[in-house]
Amino acid sequence: MTAADRGTLGHGYTVVTPANHYPSRLPEFGDQPVVKLVTPRLAPSRIGQYLVTVAPGGGTTRRVGAGHERFFYVLDGSVTVLTSAAPDGRWSLSAGGYTYLPADMAYEIRSTDGARLLILKRVYEGHAAHDAPGAFSGHRDDEPFAETPVPGFTRRELLPVDDPAFDFAMSLLRFDAGVGLDKIEVHDEEHGLWMTEGAGLYVLNGDEHPVQAEDFIYMAPYCPQGFTASDSGPAEYLLYKDTWRDGF
Predict the structure, then answer these.
(1) Which of 123, 139, 155 is the last residue of a domain?
(2) Fewer CB within 10 Å, N side or C side of the chain?
(3) Strands 47-54 and 216-219
(4) pLDDT band, residue 17 (cuts 50/70/90)
């Protein structure tokens, strides 16, 4: 199997590898390349998730969320997020840094030396009992990874999972060598998954797929799924899922 052969469209999922990337463009980034990892054109996805390469001295024009909340995660390099919600009007993010912006918040992105970042975009689903969450920023190292009932499997939540004002979660899941999820999961939440480190085997709707760092997986609601890290070392991924809402 070649690197390009690992990319696939299955029933309820896609696997996208670096060998499959097709650089596209979005108006706010001009000629800077954008890989559309998933968009709502792939039904039933309700998210857009993008891999963006920001040129040295580059960034975005001024943008307004227009009903869409956004999450930025820096893979390498550094960016500055300019927004009125930040202290002194800006958040400076290095690799592993992230920012959440609620819907309708204006922002700009700037990078002096260049960067790669993941951007997640979705329509905010409000709830009558809760005000919309505010903007905030952090770094993956702000808190230690927490233990789970599965030995060798730890996780770090980047958004507050106990706050029903948020309609999605972003989590870092980390597995020691040979460790995996303790069952095949089937559930209502969709996923966007970016492999940040290592390798392993993902089971998607009964199909087995070897995955490694820089791969992306989209999983539709109710896609049977499971993961086991390879024996060669730890594995980690950044995981999106919708939360606190029932899909209506």
Answers:
(1) 139
(2) C
(3) unpaired
(4) very high
Q: How many CB atoms lie within 10 A of CB 65?
A: 17
- Structure pTM? 0.96
**What is the chain's alpha carbon radius of gyration, rounded to the nearest angstrom?**
18
Tokens of 35: 């890989």
CA nearest to 214, candidates 233, 229, 236: 236
14 within some domain: no
Residues 100 and 70 sit within 8 Å (Cβ to Cβ): yes
Verify cis geometry, omega within 30 degrees of 0, for the bond prior to 44: yes
17 within domain boundaries: no
- Give the total number of structural domains in the chain: 2
User: Which amino acid is present at 108?
Assistant: E
Per-residue pLDDT tens for 73-107?
Answer: 999 999 999 999 999 999 999 999 999 999 989 99
Q: What does each C-alpha distance from 246 to 125, 159, 241 come to in angstroms?
A: 10, 19, 13
Task: List residues bridging with 153 in a β-sheet.
Answer: 175
